[in-house]
Amino acid sequence: MTTMTMTASAGPSLPSPPGSTHSRRMTNRMTNRYSVNAMYSLAAEQDVELEDDLARAQKRLRDLKSRISSQSKKNFVLERDVRYLDSRIALLIQNRMAADEKREVAETLEEIDEDSGLWPDERRMGQYANLFFLLQSEPRHVASLCRLVSLSEIDTLLQTVMFTLYGNQYEQREEHLLLTMFQSVLSAQFETTNEFGSLLRANTPVSRMMTTYTRRGPGQSYLKSVLADRINSLIEHKDLNLEINPLKVYEQMIQQIEEDSGTLPPSLPRGVPPEVAAANPDVQAIIVPRLTMLMEIANTFLATIIDSMETVPYGIRWICKQIRSLTRRKYPEASDASICSLIGGFFFLRFINPAIVTPQAYMLVDGVPAKHPRRTLTLIAKMLQNLANKPSYAKEQYMMSLNPFVETNKVRMNQFLNALCEVGDFYESLELDQYMALSKKDLQINITLNELYNTHSLLMQHMDTLSPNDRHHLRILLDELGPAPAQVPRKENRSIELPLYSRWETPIQDLSTALMSDSVTQNDINYMEAKSIFVQLLRSMPQLADRRPVDLAALAERAATSKDPLLVRRGIKVQALLSELDAAGVVERQDGYKIMQDEVAAEMVHLGNAKEKVVLETRSLESVYKTICDHNNYLRSQLEQYKAYLQNVRLTSSKDKGAGGGVGVVTVNGKEKKQAKNTVLGPYRFTHSQFEKEGIIMDSNVPENRRMNIYFNITSPTPGTFIIALHFKGREKPILEMDLKIDDLLEKQKDHQAMLDLEYVQLNVPKVLALFNKLFSKRR
Predict the structure, then answer these.
(1) pLDDT of 711-731, one tens digit each?
(2) Domain Ras-GAP: where (predicted)?
(3) Which of 387-391, 484-488, 665-669 has the lowest mean pLDDT?
(4) Environment class of residue 394 by beta-carbon count within 10 Å: exposed (0-12), middle (13-18) or buried (19+)?
(5) C-alpha of 227 from chain center
(6) Secondary structure of residue 406 in the 3-state scheme
(7) Residue 181 in this model has a pLDDT that exceeds 80
(8) Which of helix, strand or coil describes residue 164?
């Protein structure tokens, strides 16, 4: 809704007739920031159809924001499906899963049939419309529910809350209501936490909520605009090794010496303890310049983040503000540094650093970064975390070497974290937003049947806690609805457009009457309406919009005598309003209605600037939308792989009920009775260049001039077990052999570890799984 964009530049306060005492008074609803004038303009615009450049640009931006909100929800659901299948499909293929669990996995891969299933009847739809209006407009109910559900239930509820109930991620009213819910949840978290050190750190529904919030469109847009260029410029340097762990540096050093000379001197034994590696002068000489470079890179990241403070989404900053406020209230003796550590724990630990460590998951880069830059990004994130959140070197003593970065930037970081909290509250504007919502005719949410029924079910489970009083609105609605319907099969889980309205709130029919109060007179209403019509006329007749000063009387006359019926009605209406205002002494015809003339001119300048901002925001969000769609395609490709695996399982299971191998490697204890139980399959031979071409090799430490002599042999001695052997032409024995269990690869994939390290080469885990599937799934 375009009318929800509120700014401090809404215009000066209402003028008054001579002798009036109410010129600067505000309604009870608003502070100085939100004048009645702005409120009227916002409401009046809702029913006006304008077709100027600004209106068209705003419509494009609204449509784009709507698509981003919708696509974000789809990605959230797909990511959850992929996580679930990562953890379950191994059991399925190894035949360690019950029949109902197999059915659940199969249903996760089914496409939704929008023409199947039954809709709730009209009476029930009306009850749900009332219930979800209440949940959306009174966030305390959802806040309480989020604290009551279990960790296993929170993701499904968060999907409904973050992407459905408050799913319009760029609509101010829904954003403010969602933040109000956050405040309630955070307040309860602070009340129930006894130890300062454990605040917001455990894996709880609250922490999951905070992380999920950062994945909404505005958060993703910020991360892309601030971090993408910085990360992409770093990962271009694939060979830049900034490892500072002495043990790893020592191992890499002796490996290089052995490759160059063919032997290792006795003074450099393998398998030394960390303290011996750290004491080695050559290791120290390698690490020192790396420390300098790491601190330089971390400083550029920090500077970029600090400089971006004004573009941090309002909601992220507001949550930081609540953390500071609640901490000060509960722990008045807490130092500023301690409070900043909590703010940093949210802003960096749950928002910034995950995007730095796994930029591919946040759609900031194409593909997975190579080994060395990936390690550098991890170290940068550790440095920022140690700076923002009390350093902990218990497990990684080598990070102590980077302490100068922490000491140098500690004050700067705390200033930034405190500055993040300096944002205004929105309670007055939320009251206005709620008021405006009552004049909307199209308040609705897009919700699936299972989201509807799951939320209903959770509310029923906790009804006595959420609404113990029989007269409470929530209790009345739940009593009327009765028990929640069962979840429908996935293929019948259609989306419905659910209108939202309340039996206890009366929609606003007449704006002027609704605005009337002790401090808003009919003259005020007339003035606001006249100004609004003049702005509409100028937007409808752009050839007049740039003329200064604006001749209001001539503009009204031109509209009233035009050939456009709509302009004629507006022209006649505004002429009548000017006459009434002139007679009342609010404006003066003799000076050309100067006070209104100035305000209309100022509004047109503001709208011109608004158009530029809308166009710039649209360009920025188009990039975000493309990235979100690309991520959606990637997730869908993963699900397609799972469908292929599942199909293979079904085929082989129908022949034999034996045990299987793993994802993409469907195996049974014997394809035919005559076949040996554990037939060795392979070897299958691949060259280094073949693996590179297929993208299976992510990174290679093999010198360029030796790669043509390298090849791989892959065998499967038993179901679910594989051997990758790295060979050099002319040598009988392999240089390296690695035994792989399918469970290990599945675990890596589930944990988003895309790399399989074979010492000399690093392989892509999903592509290795796909290769195993292709080689072995139909051969057992």
Answers:
(1) 999 998 876 678 999 998 888
(2) 173-389
(3) 665-669
(4) exposed
(5) 15
(6) helix
(7) yes
(8) helix
What is the predicted pLDDT for the residue at 201?
64
Q: Can you give the residue ranges of every domain in the chain?
A: 2-23+30-48+510-611, 215-420, 681-776
- What confidence score (pLDDT) does residue 429 get? 61
- Three-state secondary structure call for residue 289: helix
Owner of token pair 């308040």 = 443
Q: Is the dihedral of CA 716, 717, 722, 728 positive or negative?
A: negative
Amino acid at residue number 578: L
CA atoms of 48 and 608, how far apart (whole Å): 18
DSSP structure class, residue 475:
H
CA separation for the pair 249, 277 (Å, rounded): 8
pLDDT at 193 over 80: no
CA angle 522, 523, 525 (to 5 degrees): 65
Residue 696 CA: distances (Å) to CA of 116, 684, 691, 714, 754: 41, 15, 5, 13, 11
Rounded to an integer, the average pLDDT of 199-222 is 78
**Number of Cα atoms under 13 Å in the Cβ half of residue 291:** 17
Q: What is residue 25's three-state secondary structure?
A: coil
| Distance of alpha carbon 62 from alpha carbon 44, whole angstroms | 19
Topology annotation, domain 215-420: GTPase Activation - p120GAP; domain 1 (1.10.506)
Q: What is the pLDDT of residues 301-318, one digit of tens each?
A: 999 999 999 999 999 999
Beta-carbon contacts of 208 under 8 Å, excluding residues fewer than 6 positions away, are 151, 154, 155, 158
What are the Cα distances from residue 43, in Å, to 47, 471, 669, 711?
8, 33, 71, 71
Question: From CA 681, how far away is CA 719, in angstroms rounded?
Answer: 9
CA–CA dist 190, 184 (Å, integer)? 10
Query: Considering only CA atoms, which of 512, 504, 592, 520 is closest in space to residue 550?
Result: 592
Cα separation, 163 vs 144, in Å, equals 18
Between 373 and 515, where is the model more confident? Answer: 373
H or E segment and range at residue 763 = strand 761-764
Cα angle value 336/340/341 (rounded, 5°): 120
Q: On the CB side of 177, how many CA atoms lie within 13 Å of its CA?
A: 28
CB 76 within 8 A of CB 637: no
**pLDDT, tens digit (0-9, with 9 covering 90-100), for 48-70:** 556 667 778 878 888 888 888 78
pLDDT at 96 over 50: no
Per-residue pLDDT, 779: 58
Cβ atoms of residues 252 and 372 within 8 Å: no
DSSP 352: I
What's phi and psi for 111, nearest 5 deg? -80, 150
**Model pLDDT, residue 25:** 31
- Within its chain, how far is the Cα of 541 from the centroid? 41
CB 252 within 8 A of CB 380: no
Which residue has tokens 């806040």? 143
Distance (Å, rounded) from C-alpha 344 to C-alpha 347? 5
Calpha distance 373→381 (Å, rounded)? 12
Mean pLDDT, the chain, whole residue set: 78
Rounded to an integer, what distance in angstroms lies between the CA atom of residue 337 and that of residue 644?
53
Question: Could you tell me the two tokens for 650?
Answer: 């079904």
Cα–Cα distance between 770 and 665 in angstroms, integer?
A: 8
Non-local (6+) Cβ contacts of 3 within 8 A are 42, 43, 45, 46, 436
Put simply, whether the predicted model's pTM sits higher than 0.85 gets the answer: no
Amino acid (1-letter code) at residue 288: V
